[in-house]
Specification:
Blueprint: H1 4-12, H2 17-25, H3 27-32, H4 37-40, H5 44-56, H6 58-64, H7 69-75, H8 80-91, H9 101-124, H10 130-153, E1 165-170, E2 184-190, H11 197-212, E3 223-224, E4 237-239, H12 240-249, H13 253-260, E5 262-267, H14 269-284, H15 291-305, E6 312-313, H16 322-336, H17 347-354, H18 358-381, E7 388-389, H19 394-402, H20 408-432
Helix pairs in contact: 1-5, 2-5, 5-9, 8-10, 9-10, 10-11, 12-14, 16-17, 16-20, 18-19, 18-20, 19-20
Length: 438
């Protein structure tokens, strides 16, 4: 070993596939940072987490090799640091002046990358459950969206527009269930009439560009706005009144399903959230039978997005994947009515609001495990992967990150068992047309 720190990192990985990868995947870090006093002070779970990060993703190792201040911070951190940092991020503002647009965009991208690495070290150190890590990644995404929105307003919007424009997060960000390499599913609402569409559209366009444009520091987040009213054929922005009218008079069941997982995350948050709550209560009403329509929708998703063969397992969109549980959670709320709507629209909260019992506990445990597997898969693949490859060098790395000592074949067996349990619950609910069948 070239340094005592490298030896400590290697020893913390024990005799695993990650230990074998450290010297190659972590080469940039080991070359530039192995003699740093701050890095040498890292120990305990943080040392394990850093070692697992370096050995599992060369991109992260390369990035951290140029961030010496990161290691002093990591040495002073523990699991409680996630919540503290999330609170700091909720108040953070850009330090680069708005006249330096490129500098502002780079600042946001570097913030996203460093904070993601910070979360990964705590995550992989085994001293925090993934729910807290996911909550932190959600806070990070919200903070960056809020800062980018402020920058978008400073790019030429009319005075006062900041109090009239709202960013609505859909899906995982709405339920604070973000993970590594998640996209931001967003829709944009504004208060006012058609005379404001041009100004409001420019704000939305700038926000998308500021989040998703590639700079020398990478991208902040990929942005998807296809869940807006009328989808890609619709306007980029929608007025408060127009949104309520569309959802209550025109929207289809799949759009109401998406609406269940929505939350105002930036801009004019309070009035936008009040609007979402009111519209959800109206479209769900006293409850109805959603299961035939949801079953048809779910089958269509599986056909279009869940290609499965010996080499790939669609752990999200495939039969028995986490999307089965998402559909059960939404369907349960449709069946039970507005009184069951939870304050935070996470999949576990939605599901727990509409049913109870040991079957629910098993389903939620399966959901949590699949989420961890999905997160590790995305981290190792460095992209928003929806399928788990059954061959190749990534699988044993993912398995080791899921649980120390787990092999690739053992992970595949666990995934298969989970999918059977999840699909059996889904089939019971669809067959009996009630969430109580869980």
């Amino acid at each position: 070993m070239s340094s005592s720190l490298e030896k400590r990192l290697h020893d913390s990985l024990a005799n695993t596939v990650l230990a074998e990868r450290l010297a190659t995947c972590g080469a940039p870090f080991l070359e530039y940072r192995s003699k740093d006093a701050a890095a040498a002070a890292i120990e305990g779970p943080m040392l394990v987490g850093l070692a697992r990060l370096l050995a599992s993703q060369p991109k992260a190792a390369g990035f951290l090799s140029h961030r010496p201040e990161f290691f002093e911070r990591l040495a002073a951190s523990d699991t409680a640091s996630l919540a503290k940092r999330a609170d700091e991020l909720s108040r953070r503002e850009l330090t680069t002046g708005p006249d330096d647009l490129e500098g502002c965009l780079d600042e946001l991208r570097l913030l996203r990358r460093e904070e993601t690495c910070f979360a990964a070290c705590i995550d992989f150190g085994g001293d925090s459950d993934f729910g807290r890590v996911s909550d932190f990644l959600s806070s990070l995404a919200e903070s960056i969206t809020r800062q980018a929105l402020g920058l978008a307003h400073s790019g030429g919007a009319s005075e006062g527009d900041g109090a009239e424009f709202a960013v609505i997060g859909m899906g995982k960000i709405a339920g604070r269930e973000f993970t590594y390499y998640s996209d931001l599913d967003l829709i944009f609402l504004y208060r006012g009439g058609v005379e404001r569409i041009a100004d409001m559209s420019r704000i939305g366009q700038r926000l998308i560009a500021y989040l998703s444009t590639t700079t020398g520091a990478g991208v902040a987040y990929a942005v998807d706005t296809r869940l807006r009213p009328s989808g890609q054929q619709g306007m980029l922005v929608t007025s408060f009144d127009g949104f309520e009218r569309y959802q209550c008079e025109t929207a289809e069941t799949w759009e109401h399903l998406a609406l269940l997982r929505s939350r105002a995350i930036a801009g004019s948050i309070a009035p936008a959230q009040a609007l979402l709550d009111r519209v959800r209560a109206r479209v769900v009403g006293d409850g109805f039978d959603p299961w035939p329509a949801l079953s048809e929708m779910r089958d269509r998703v599986a056909q279009e997005r869940a290609e499965e063969d010996e080499a790939n397992i669609p752990i999200k969109t495939g039969l028995g994947g986490s999307m089965d549980i998402d559909f059960l959670a939404g369907g349960g709320l449709f069946e039970c009515g507005a009184a069951a709507l939870p304050e935070l629209p996470s999949t576990p909260a939605m599901l727990s609001a509409s049913c109870h019992g040991p079957g629910l506990d098993a389903l939620l445990e399966g959901y949590r495990t699949l989420r961890v597997i999905e997160a590790r898969n995305r981290w190792v693949q460095s992209r928003a992967a929806e399928s788990l490859a059954t061959t190749g060098e990534a699988l044993p790395v993912i398995a080791e990150l899921v649980e120390t000592g787990t092999t690739g074949p053992e992970l595949l067996t666990r995934v298969a068992d989970l999918r059977r349990v999840i699909r059996a619950s889904y089939d019971r609910v669809i067959g009996r047309a009630t969430i109580e069948a869980i």
